Amino acid sequence: MLTHLDSQGRANMVDVTEKAVTEREATAEARVRMLPHTLQMIVDGEHPKGDVFAVARIAGIQAAKKTSDLIPLCHPLMLTSVKVELSAEGSDAVRIVARCKLAGQTGVEMEALTAASVAALTLYDMCKAVDKGMVIEQVRLLEKLGGKSGPYKVQG
Questions:
Q1: Fewest CB atoms within 10 A around its CB: which of 9, 32, 66, 134?
Q2: pLDDT tens-place string over residues 122-136
Q3: How crowded is residue 14: how many other Cβ atoms within 10 Å of its Cβ?
């Protein structure tokens, strides 16, 4: 049984030594709601801080690679692919989709969620002088493939 508790009930990192190496992939998303004017500035490339999407994309990729430094008890992983895509959604939101892959003994859900979250936080940071009322929402796992627990896909 995999657990973060040892025989004395203390938190520890799960031992994945006996788990098989398999292809694993996870996709997560986040949304950032903002004023339509803020989104238009980003889309038109007129934001005073430059290409907001490019900076947020890089931040998300870097965050995925550092997840074990940020989330206690996460395994350090050798990711083989990290993709972070940002797109305008309607007139007042940005959708962020992060996908992480590897061949390993444990999943990459936390890496995908971290990438989406940090990309959203970076977008907020870059735009807060223009729009302090932005809301980061719907950070969630969309899909996972591979591993012992099998596939998962969000419904709806």
A1: 9
A2: 999 999 999 999 999
A3: 16
* CATH class of the domain at 44-142: alpha beta
Question: Which residues define the annotated binding site for substrate?
Answer: 73-75, 110-111
**Which residue spans within the chain are E strands per DSSP?**
22-33, 81-89, 93-104, 135-145, 152-153
Question: By C-alpha distance, which of 128, 141, 129 is closest to 30?
Answer: 141
**pTM beyond 0.70, yes or no:** yes
- Written as one string, the DSSP assignment of 33-71 is E--HHHHHHHHTT--TT--HHHHHHHHHHHHHHTHHHHS
pLDDT tens figures, 24-54? 999 999 999 999 999 999 999 988 888 999 9
Choose, from 6, 15, 51, 125, the residue flagged as catalytic: 125
